[in-house]
Q: What sequence folds into this?
């Protein structure tokens, strides 16, 4: 393998086991739009990376970054027109209740801020999340990951089974029953927190249940969950790190799902590669947070974050990427859905906009998750020059989440490669 | 005030109470080397900002950032020559035991990683820190701040009084006695953790006790603390976010202080404004961390962090900034020390390299901390075009921590302004 010595050096310098994608990892050297290029000059169509939402190597973003870094990049305790403009623009992209923004660098940090703020304003500690989620990697936030695998739930956290019409908690339930069951599970988690003495501060959820594998969620359920949270005295935090920024064909995933969260957490695509994250919420929540926590984050709320963050929003507007994601996403989804009847291992195709999932099963009747086939399929696609990965509670969901500049032609090319890869997988 | 409408908009967009420096906050619009310029074109000599270590607007760093962002900026699960080189270079800047690096975006995130890793490799939970420290802003890491003010110590954390020859825990002790007392306090904290059942995972400390106000620490004490940690089965984590990267006249603060930590946490100056942080430690520690935690941080260990991080190290080398910080720092410290006898409110001048502190007191006998005078002095200096801030357990320590490119001429100018400001403060 050509990369063997680089892999060996990497094992020493970054520690053995630092994750690499694919059986034969790729050394990328260049990116442009929806494409990545390896050291041998081979082109890959990127259907995985959501961070470079306005395209790999986007020149307007790189220019904004370079100009601001060369001009001024300093912490947030001096006044800065740029960061105020950026916060105003982010707040205005949300519903009327959202006025103020707290910036950080990573999604993890923004989730930490949202939780701290929710705990402060409610005076309670308890958190509710799904049983197959991921919201970040700090000690607190990581404790929400993989709750279905863990015997204990530290940090005042209880989980509920995420709603999934393909694999419902009780077989054969309809949308209405699943909604009812999910609301009961959420209630139960809140009750448990209350009876333990933690109280209920907030429920945090990815608006489209991305890490859960993009399940089909009963319509109206999210609005009912929001109502329930408020009735129980808690807040609803929408983790929009994956679902936001046009990904679903609407600017925020919560718009697509028809609910209004109390706090909106943004991250990955905000900086097209520059670390930027944010919590947007009511001004009085932020005021209380500022008054009681001396929160300061050195490299956030900087002129650099502002310049790059605004350039990304400008590019999304200029290229009309929100609508584009909806149109191309629908086209791609329709193409994938045609494959369900052609290939037994495809159990389901779900998602919206440019975030789709293909659920791989051993057979359509048992619906037994097939994580191995999912990995094999991802490797087949990679060999054909298309980059995807896997997700979901059972790691059997092909995760399709390209840069928003991914075109209809790219979709056609991918659909051909997908068909070809499925044939190879099925030994045809 | 010219900035009133911007301040009002900021209060709404970022929440009221987001900290601003100085009675009349400054709107900065440009930076160059050790200088910042406000909207009216007024120049300030920067003696506060440690992030732009190789200078505000450093062109080589801005160029590296722009080129890499325009070429490729993608997550770490593809192979990348740059990030391996950067990790190798960081490891090599440390003592022999340090081989491998885990990258993150912020200092907080790197401290989280160090703690997670220490807990995994020791199988214990307990942490020891000083009673006036700050290591970051996540729920866990923030719980180490201001332990002297808090009645409870959650998260398996115990503190010890930081060593301070100016304000020793027992009046009039000499260096040897203070060392002995500090070691006893550390032992006590470890014993308490053990008897509570937490066990002892790690002691974390800024190598030069920056947030504690840069106290004079008895020579050899840090090496004794390292020995004690190892004897008790725990690890010593050096938080080098402030003390590292040439700040003290040595590359790492721990070199200046004469000890070898098990883990080295780097942050702020690493990216000259781009969020980069890292934990460097033994390979077997990182291997175990990688094997047991699926740690992934989207915008870290990227080609962008590598390109910018390497450019910063190149600039430090090219301009000889480590030695420079030692020389100019000594010169500046000598000038400030001459003021001790001239002005009663100056209780002490401490620090090393380009990180100095001036302890402000009500009178030299009582040594009563004078936080108000410290703030007034910072405002006087700002009015004269010099930027400093305050620190320390009692917020009565003037914090002097310029970009490393700060020159001897800048030092002369500052010393004149300092003298003038002290005269104003003392009503002369």
A:
């Amino acid at each position: 393998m050509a990369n063997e010595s680089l892999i060996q050096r990497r094992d020493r310098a970054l520690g053995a086991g630092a994750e690499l994608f694919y059986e034969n990892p790729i050394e990328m050297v260049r990116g442009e739009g929806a494409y990545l290029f390896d050291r041998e000059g081979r082109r890959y169509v990127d259907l995985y990376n959501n961070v470079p939402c306005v395209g790999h190597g986007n020149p307007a973003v790189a220019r904004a970054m370079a100009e601001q870094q060369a001009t001024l990049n300093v912490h947030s305790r001096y006044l800065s027109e740029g960061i105020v403009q950026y916060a105003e623009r982010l707040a205005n992209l949300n519903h009327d209740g959202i006025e103020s923004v707290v910036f950080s660098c990573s999604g993890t940090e923004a989730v930490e801020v949202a939780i701290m703020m929710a705990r402060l304003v409610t005076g309670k500690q308890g958190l509710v999340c799904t049983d197959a989620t991921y919201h970040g990697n700090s000690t607190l936030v990581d404790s929400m990951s993989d709750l279905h695998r863990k015997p204990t739930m530290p940090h005042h956290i209880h989980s509920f089974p995420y709603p999934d019409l393909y694999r419902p908690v009780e077989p054969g339930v309809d949308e209405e029953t699943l909604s009812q069951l999910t609301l009961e599970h959420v209630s139960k988690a809140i009750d448990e927190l209350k009876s333990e003495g933690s109280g209920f501060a907030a429920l945090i959820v990815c608006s489209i249940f991305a890490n859960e594998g993009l399940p089909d969620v009963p319509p109206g359920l999210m609005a009912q969950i929001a109502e329930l949270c408020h009735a129980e005295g808690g807040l609803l935090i929408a983790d929009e790190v994956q679902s936001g920024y046009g990904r679903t064909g609407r600017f925020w995933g919560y718009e697509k799902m028809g609910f209004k969260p109390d706090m909106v957490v943004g991250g990955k695509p905000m900086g097209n590669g520059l670390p930027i994250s944010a919590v947007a919420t009511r001004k009085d929540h932020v005021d209380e947070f500022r008054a009681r926590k001396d929160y300061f984050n050195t490299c956030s709320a900087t002129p650099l974050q502002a310049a790059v963050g605004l350039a990304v929003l400008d590019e999304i507007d200029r290229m009309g990427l929100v609508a584009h994601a909806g149109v191309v996403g629908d086209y791609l989804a329709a193409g994938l859905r045609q494959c369900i009847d052609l290939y037994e291992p495809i159990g389901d195709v779900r998602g919206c906009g440019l975030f789709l999932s293909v659920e791989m099963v051993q057979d359509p009747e048992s619906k037994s998750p097939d994580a191995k086939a999912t990995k094999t399929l991802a490797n087949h696609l990679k060999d054909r020059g298309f980059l995807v990965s896997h997700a979901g509670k059972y790691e059997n969901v092909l995760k399709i989440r390209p840069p928003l500049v991914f075109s209809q032609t790219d979709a056609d090319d991918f659909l051909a490669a997908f068909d070809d890869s499925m044939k190879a997988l099925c030994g045809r």
About this structure: The two ends of chain A are 29 Å apart (CA to CA). Chain A has two domains: 4-54+320-425, 59-318. The mean pLDDT of chain A is 95.
